[in-house]
Amino acid sequence: MDQQGPISPPRGATLRARLTVPVLAMCGVLMAVMQTVVVPLLPDLPRLTNSSPGAVSWMVTSTLLAGAVLTPVLGRAGDMYGKRKVLTASLALMTVGSVMCALSSDITVLIAARALQGAAASVVPLSISILRDELPPERRGSAVAMMSSTVGIGAALGLPLAAMVVQYADWHTMFWMTSALGALGVTAVAWAVRESPVRQPGRFDVLGALGLAVGLVSLLLGVSQGGQWGWGSPRVLALFALSVAVLALWWWRQLRTEQPLVDLRLVTRPRVGLSHVAALLTGFAFYANSLVTAQLVQAPKATGYGLGLSIVATGLCLLPGGVTMLLFSPLSARISASRGPRITLALGAAVIACGYAVRIADSRDLWMIILGATVVATGTTLAYSALPTLILRAVPAEQTASANGVNVLMRTIGQATSSAAVAAVLVHHTSLVGGAPVPTLHGYLLAFAMAGAIALAACAAALTIPGDATPEKTRPAGDGTRGARNEAMEGA
Q1: C-alpha 184 chain-centroid distance
Q2: pLDDT: which is higher, 88 or 478
Q3: How many CB atoms lie within 10 A of CB 276?
Q4: Please, are residues 49 and 106 in contact by the beta-carbon 8 Å criterion?
Q5: Residue 252: partners with Cβ closer than 8 Å, 6 or more residues away
Q6: 391 near 272, Cβ under 8 Å?
Q7: Cα separations in angstroms, 471 against 21, 82, 162
């Protein structure tokens, strides 16, 4: 047993150690808020920026594409050069992007700024890796669960907050606020978070990063723009063909590179690969809830089912789900500690499916809509909290950031696919209301059924993951670094 010295650590150092988890959680919430705040602006941005709706949609698409590409790349960079260093850089890029949005009304500048903000997608996987390296095993599970939940919490808080700012103040004010919060996040990480000593030295695979970027951008651009450009259009088909060719070549090269960007031999292990499949399916199932709920409650009352709510009221409808995610993250950690994260993931996916069953049963009454959305959020909390724990138990400590980055990438692909699939369903089930095409209730119910079926598939994928390693609570306690190394040996 380690013996403590007679001299206690400096008070400031102790305070910083205690604030590590809250600071990282704050950064996760800030990242989700930053991604969400532009949503209430989308209907008015063509007028505010003198641009077309198609150009404005790129303020969302550019963030999605940049986040998908940079998450695994920055995860690998964190494993090699230092997780805190890369985390600080990603937060700084997010803040610079926010300042650019605050200073400009030019749509080209805004799209470029939102692409810079996409770097913040790596905040959660990098933070989870830092928690693994720094915390003892008995604290790690609850901290990781909380970190995973920040995505939903921030999204639920960001939408009503941004809607109120847009409604009562100049829209640039919103970006000045997020700029200040971003600067606070950079400062807090620099002060409270210690640089992780766990590294995987080597040479960064620049060619691998470029190949992954081209392949992912082609894939996600085709998926996100397929509804607008036409799924059978030459542009979309060419993007998909390019993606398949580049990613196939990238895969072949990664298997033959001594220091690859992504360790594909690790990815193909059942415990890691099936966790990535479950992440993709869960991301699809989760994202449909936010997309459909917002449209459903804002639909005009003339449709016979719509409630005609404002964007502020819509955000408040999603707020209970965010609060639920905050409250249920400790429960997720306890289930994972006692039963294993595989069971927690399967349970979460099953709860998501139950939430969509509630949505199918009644999507006319506001309280039932909120109840169904909150049940889906509860299941998402359980599933998203379990996914990084599965990865942490299955990969070596020096590869946690890159492995979690790939897992977040799979969630992103699932969300992009969900957006395209939901849009395709709703476009094909419309009726004219006041001379304008509006999705029918049947279309919404089909979208719920599709998302629920995908959630059940995620549950099945979770149950096929090989059994968990020894629960963390039985492992010997020690400093975070020793715990990470011991766990890495078990995972390997």
Answers
A1: 21
A2: 88
A3: 22
A4: yes
A5: none
A6: yes
A7: 21, 28, 41
Average pLDDT over residues 51-64: 83
Answer yes or no: are the C-beta atoms of 192 and 73 closer than 8 Å: no
Which tens digits make up the pLDDT trace of 169-218?
Answer: 888 998 999 999 999 999 999 988 988 777 777 788 899 999 999 999 99
335: tokens are 């289930």
Q: For residue 347, which phi and psi values (nearest 5 degrees)?
A: -65, -45
CA distances from 233 to 10, 56, 222, 261, 419 (A): 64, 21, 10, 33, 19
Percentage above 70 pLDDT, the chain:
92
Short-list 129, 126, 131, 123, CA closest to 182? 123
Q: Would you say 371 and 354 are in contact if contact means Cβ atoms under 8 Å apart?
A: no
**Contact 218/240 with Cβ under 8 angstroms?**
yes
pLDDT tens, residue by residue, 300-342: 888 888 888 887 788 788 788 888 887 888 888 888 888 889 9
Instruction: Report which of 223, 156, 216 is spatially closest to residue 419, judged by C-alpha positions.
Output: 223
Instruction: Please give the structure tokens belonging to residue 360.
Output: 């199918």
Write a three-state SS string for the chain: CCCCCCCCCCHHHHHHHHHHHHHHHHHHHHHHHHHHCCHHHCCCHHHHHCCCHHHHHHHHHHHHHHHHHHHHHHHHHHHHHCHHHHHHHHHHHHHHHHHHHHHCCCHHHHHHHHHHHHHHHHHHHHHHHHHHHHCCHHHHHHHHHHHHHHHHHHHHHHHHHHHHHHHHCCHHHHHHHHHHHHHHHHHHHHHHCCCCCCCCCCCCCHHHHHHHHHHHHHHHHHHHHHHHHCCCCHHHHHHHHHHHHHHHHHHHHHCCCCCCCCCHHHHCCHHHHHHHHHHHHHHHHHHHHHHHHHHHHHCCHHHCCCCCCCHHHHHHHHHHHHHHHHHHHHHHHHHHHHHCHHHHHHHHHHHHHHHHHHHHHCCCCHHHHHHHHHHHHHHHHHHHHHHHHHHHHHCCHHHHHHHHHHHHHHHHHHHHHHHHHHHHHHHCCEEEECCEEEECHHHHHHHHHHHHHHHHHHHHHHHCCCCCCCCHHHCCCCCHHHHHHHHHHHHC
pTM, entire model: 0.82
CA-based torsion, 373, 462, 451, 279: positive or negative: positive
**Helices 341-361/311-339 angle, 10° precision:** 150
Residue with tokens 């992103």: 412
